[in-house]
């Protein structure tokens, strides 16, 4: 029977640092996802973290011995070697204490020593009570770590320990895993979106016909969520305006739920004010009923009444024409069924955005799938082909192009 130690030498090496928080139990699922996708994982819990989840659990899930102290296997110099050999360090949950130690370079245990020696991407997933997250000391520590190139995800809002509710919840394990993988794909080097605020739209709007029915589209929101996850993993502050999705919130993103095009319009105009980039990946309905019935429309023998439609706001064109500030980068998406490039270039000129991601839809392509393929058209006449692959690949290529434009601002 093979163990992770028998895997190919080029398998990614992940150090999973576990802080002393009740959310440690959720990290077991993150570890399972890593090992099932071929990553070699070394779990490095703090001493108090083992009060929440014991060493046998981490060892069984990782298939490798748990690294707990600087005096274990001294001949291997673990306090240096673990960080040096890692392709990614993920700290989850990252407690206020761990963030403070990392920000100030303290090294009183194996995990904090590892953080000092790591030269790979380092991702912190904070989890703590709201008051601790909002304390000026924690804010300062987070800012310090981000300035050094570490990715510190913004915690989710929701139920905390006991009856408390607020921001400070560890992200969904699946979303956290995807953000960690995005950081791993990026590789060593500074987080190129650090200090940037990006606004993303995702999903498909719904326009009510009556309390039961609506006009809508087939968008699942997966591409927009991939854009949000990869942006957060590249250091950005992410605001995601999401319409009618059933996906877990991307780790590190602040999600603003909406339903209709008019609601999305209002949310985007508000959130764009401080955004360095606006990426409109949502499928926004072009039309809405002039009036929505207050009760369910009944079927009659005479057939349906004609449906009067009004034009919805063109959010992309409005944001492109009226930038919130100089240097704001605006990206649109175009879903086309035929004459893809011709229609895409016409839409790019009409909308006035900097980049337009054009992809062919229908026939099982794009909507609701895990993969995507696109051509990214630029306002200066350039184009970038993105071959069929995971939607995270397209997301990363879009952010590459956005980062190039932001660098010049």
From TrEMBL:
Gene3D superfamilies named among the record's database cross-references? CoaB-like, Flavin prenyltransferase-like
| Swiss-Prot/TrEMBL catalytic activity | N-[(R)-4-phosphopantothenoyl]-L-cysteine + H(+) = (R)-4'-phosphopantetheine + CO2; (R)-4'-phosphopantothenate + L-cysteine + CTP = N-[(R)-4-phosphopantothenoyl]-L-cysteine + CMP + diphosphate + H(+)
UniProt: CTP binding residues: 286, 296, 313-316, 333, 347, 351
Its EC number(s)? 4.1.1.36, 6.3.2.5
* Pfam families membership: DFP, Flavoprotein
| Cofactor(s) demanded | FMN; Mg(2+)
Protein name, please? Coenzyme A biosynthesis bifunctional protein CoaBC
> What's the source species for this entry?
Nocardiopsis suaedae
The gene it comes from is coaBC
């Amino acid at each position: 029977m093979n163990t992770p130690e028998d895997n190919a030498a080029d398998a990614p090496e992940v150090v999973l640092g576990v802080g002393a928080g009740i959310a440690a139990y959720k990290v077991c699922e993150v570890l399972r996802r890593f090992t099932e996708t071929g990553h070699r994982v070394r779990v490095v819990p703090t001493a108090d973290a083992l009060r929440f989840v014991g060493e046998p659990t981490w060892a069984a899930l990782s298939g490798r011995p748990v690294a707990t102290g600087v005096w274990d296997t001294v001949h291997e110099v673990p306090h240096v070697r673990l960080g040096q050999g890692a392709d990614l360090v993920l700290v989850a949950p990252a407690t206020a204490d761990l963030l403070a130690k990392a920000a100030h370079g303290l090294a009183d245990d194996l995990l904090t020593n590892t953080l000092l020696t790591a030269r790979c991407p380092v991702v912190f997933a904070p989890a703590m009570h709201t008051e601790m997250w909002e304390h000026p000391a924690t804010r300062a520590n987070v800012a310090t770590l981000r300035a050094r190139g570490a990715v510190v995800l913004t915690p989710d809002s929701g139920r905390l320990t006991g009856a408390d509710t607020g921001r400070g919840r560890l992200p969904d394990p699946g979303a956290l895993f995807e953000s960690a993988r995005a950081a791993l794909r990026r590789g060593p080097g500074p987080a190129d979106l650090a200090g940037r605020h990006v606004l993303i739209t995702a999903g498909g709007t719904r326009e009510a016909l009556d309390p039961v029915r609506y006009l809508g589209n087939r968008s699942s929101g997966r591409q927009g969520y991939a854009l949000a996850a990869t942006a957060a993993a590249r250091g950005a502050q992410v605001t995601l305006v999401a319409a009618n999705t059933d996906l877990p919130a991307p780790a590190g993103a602040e999600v603003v739920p909406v339903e209709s095009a008019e609601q999305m319009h209002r949310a985007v105009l508000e959130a764009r004010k401080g955004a360095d980039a606006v990426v409109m990946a949502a499928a926004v309905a072009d039309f809405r009923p002039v009036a929505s019935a207050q009760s369910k429309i009944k079927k009659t023998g005479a057939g349906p009444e004609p449906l009067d439609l009004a034009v919805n706001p063109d959010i992309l064109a409005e944001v492109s024409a009226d930038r919130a500030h100089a240097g704001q980068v605006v990206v649109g998406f175009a879903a086309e069924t035929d004459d893809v490039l011709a229609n895409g270039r016409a839409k790019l000129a009409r909308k006035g955005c900097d980049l337009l991601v054009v992809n062919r839809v229908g026939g099982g392509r794009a909507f609701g799938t895990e993969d995507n393929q696109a051509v990214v058209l630029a306002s200066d006449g350039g184009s970038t082909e993105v071959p069929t692959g995971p939607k995270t690949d397209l997301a990363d290529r879009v952010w590459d192009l956005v980062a190039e434009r932001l660098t010049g601002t």
